[in-house]
Amino acid sequence: MKELCLIVNPISGGKDKSGILAAVEKHLDGSLYEHRVLFTERAGQAEEIAGNCRADVVVAVGGDGTVSEVARALVGSEKTLGIIPCGSGDGLALHLGISRSPQKAVKTLNECCEVRIDAATLDGRYFFCTAGMGLDADVSLDFARSAHRGLERYISLAWEEWKHHPGDTYTIVSEKGESWSGKAVFLTVANANQWGNQARIAPMASLQDGLLDLVVVRPFSTLEIPDLATRLMTGLAPTSRHYLHFCASSFHISRTHAGAVHCDGDPFEGGKEFDLAVRKGALKALVPSSRLKKI
Description:
Layout (H helix, E strand, L loop, with lengths): L1 E7 L9 H10 L5 E7 L5 H8 L4 E6 L1 H11 L5 E6 L5 H5 L6 H10 L2 E9 L2 E3 L2 E5 H11 L5 H12 L5 E7 L4 E6 L1 E5 L21 E6 L7 H9 L9 E6 L1 E6 L3 E5 L2 E5 L2 E14 L9
Parallel strand pairs: 1-2, 1-3, 3-4, 4-16
Antiparallel strand pairs: 5-6, 5-16, 7-10, 7-14, 8-9, 8-13, 10-11, 11-12, 13-16, 14-15
Helix pairs in contact: 1-5, 2-3, 6-7
């Protein structure tokens, strides 16, 4: 029997977790797992708990931030990541095919289908879904400071940022020697295929190819936002004339101005120079059996 530890962020997504815990008690296979539940009380604590616990499977019960914290502690270890998503975006879980239904997410834990996925770094800081700078990072910083959660709040903040966002000038150099310089509204470095909520900024991205997909979105007008949003939500973002895509195992990025940066939606103030890399297969994760060949 394996030991399983659930690390619950009680405030993620602004959602009550009692229904999730009830689903765990009802549906988790007791013949496979002996489990316990621990709650976080502050930012960063999920990583501490995951690093110190002796469980075979460590389950993040929360959003992308909680998942990222737990995953950072498990990189390179024999512990396996499980996810019960209940955040505002749930990007990594959705890429992996893990349902937002607690009962179905617990079923994924019971299936015990383990895969290895890549872990990306920005200046040594791990991320597993996306990292970025520009408009999306500024919105992430606003969202982190907001008292309200949820997709509607995120969209509202994005609109406010857009109205006065100047963009920046970036230079990108890959380990292949490819380079590009120009102005962009934002840059996204994708390990997984989306920001969250099926907003697939990099639909071509794989979590098992040992590569990063770097997306540049060049300046566009307000009138073009509906078209760009539609392409984003239907997996057709790369068809936009404002979209540039680069693929490599590492990148160096420089920009004209310092400002916000995010890793898996966790924002911080960054400088002007960044190095990005990927560790192939550095993290073990549980996925639905139906997704074993589609990661």
